[in-house]
């Protein structure tokens, strides 16, 4: 079938990506006690050569305690420019700043005249990584870097009113959480916009249509999504099945969150590939107490209060059809729009989780969906 062919291509090629192909080997070696999964993945990510361009000045510095990498045109411009602050994915535990999305975005410098700041970090630092630095150290570093940049933007030739924060996957989660943390800061310039690329945003319902339809699609399988998330916040993996069933959500929370997290808010066209309503699980007091972190808006930004959502900046959200996190993006889009926030939505009909990252490698591994996504992001930035 056409769908079967698409899924075959997705599985075949995404497993060539370090975070997909190497994950299986890393998991196996971890289970047999050779090397921990997270350390092996970090080493493998570090083997990716840094992206370079002779037209750009690329330098490392610190925003307070956080290391950042700045990409800037070698030819100076006396006018204040827009700035982009980027957070990489990796579930707070691995990832590399070297092949980050800021590089292809930095190509937009030639037309956008931007300074692109990468506060994504390798395991050596940049934002600190778990488990050595437990959650929420990653959020704290991203928030620190953002506040510093907002305060010192003009020192970097950036207009403080034209700063955009951006992230992919868990980096999108961090982006959303940082934007929320800043809404009541009257001592800082307002963010111009936020860009969320297939973000993880909630752990209330892991049986939404996208989770059911894409549970076996690499690189982010349904079970892997939860396992990596629980490892990130240092939670017991033994409650995985109970979370899938929804036994971790108390009645009070269920009543509160059902107005934000429900398959009823997913448009019908996203259910045509299959969806079966899940039976409601009776909550367990023990599991509800163990899962307290899962409802923290820093970990699950979709669960922020309405008073916070209503103050967020203009937003770009990218979702992919073949991604368990697709519906998180759709639900956040609805919440923002319900509060009058301007949202630009890009849905990649043939996209999968990680497709924009894969686009960094161009003709070697690139997909049209990833290239399309990057172009849409650049087009959005042109308006900032």
Automatic annotation (TrEMBL):
This is Alpha/beta hydrolase fold-3 domain-containing protein. One of its GO terms (cellular component) is membrane. Pfam families: Abhydrolase_3 (PF07859). Residues 84-229, 293-355 form the Alpha/beta hydrolase fold-3 domain. PANTHER family: AB HYDROLASE SUPERFAMILY PROTEIN C4A8.06C, ALPHA_BETA HYDROLASE FOLD-3 DOMAIN-CONTAINING PROTEIN. InterPro entries: AB_hydrolase_3, AB_hydrolase_fold, Arylacetamide_deacetylase, GDXG_lipolytic_enzyme. Gene3D superfamilies: alpha/beta hydrolase. One of its GO terms (molecular function) is carboxylic ester hydrolase activity. Belongs to the 'GDXG' lipolytic enzyme family. Keywords: Hydrolase. It comes from Geospiza parvula. SUPFAM superfamilies: alpha/beta-Hydrolases.
